[in-house]
Amino acid sequence: MDQAVIDKLNEILKHEWTGVAQYSQAGFVVSGLWREVYSDMFLDAAKESFGHAKIVGQKISALGGVPTIERNQVKQTDDLYEMLTNGLEFESKAVQLYQEVLSMVDGKNRPLVVLLEEILLEEQEGVDEFTMILKDPSVAAQAKGGSASKAG
Ligand SMILES: [Fe+2]
User: Fold this and answer.
1) Any idea where the Ferritin-like diiron domain is (predicted)?
2) Which tens digits make up the pLDDT trace of 39-59?
3) Disulfide: which of 11, 27, 64, 85 matches 43 by Cβ 3.0-4.6 Å?
4) How close is the Cα of 55 to the center of ligand 1, in Å?
């Protein structure tokens, strides 16, 4: 298998590990009345990222590569609006990465295309979901009063 494909899959795995940490932390710290809704939603998103990491990591191994244990910088915040916009940004980047690797393997490895397309659909669902939530005026109103985010 092409080393460039393995490298791109590792870039994706790194992104998924970032999602595991970023969404988990959001689920741990989200507070206020809406914690009841969003804590589980973020923790489910962390589980989805781990599920994707598992599939991609196993595939990297099967292709003869070494699955990365690295992750990118996590965006930390205690502000719900920022958590949601971070989520939208994360899912959009995932859609972009899976499309990039798909363009590399399309027409060359049908099973890998099918595997990646299934994940791509879930990433797009994430984009759609966060986009819909962010349309809520009460969520958007928080954009004005939100606290500064901390990089970490
Ligand atoms: Fe994912």
Assistant:
1) 1-141
2) 999 999 999 999 999 999 999
3) 27
4) 10
For the chain, domain boundaries: 3-137
Amino acid code (one letter) for 58: Q
Distance 23 CA to ligand 1 centre (A): 11
Percent of the chain at pLDDT above 70?
92
DSSP string, 76-143: E-S-HHHHHHHHHHHHHHHHHHHHHHHHHHTTT-HHHHHHHHHHHHHHHHHHHHHHHHTT-HHHHHHH
| Ligand 1 center from residue 148 Cα (angstroms) | 26
Please report the sign of the dihedral spanned by the C-alpha atoms of residue 96, residue 98, residue 101, residue 103: negative
pTM for the full model? 0.91
Tell me the CA–centroid distance for residue 88 and ligand 1, in Å: 12
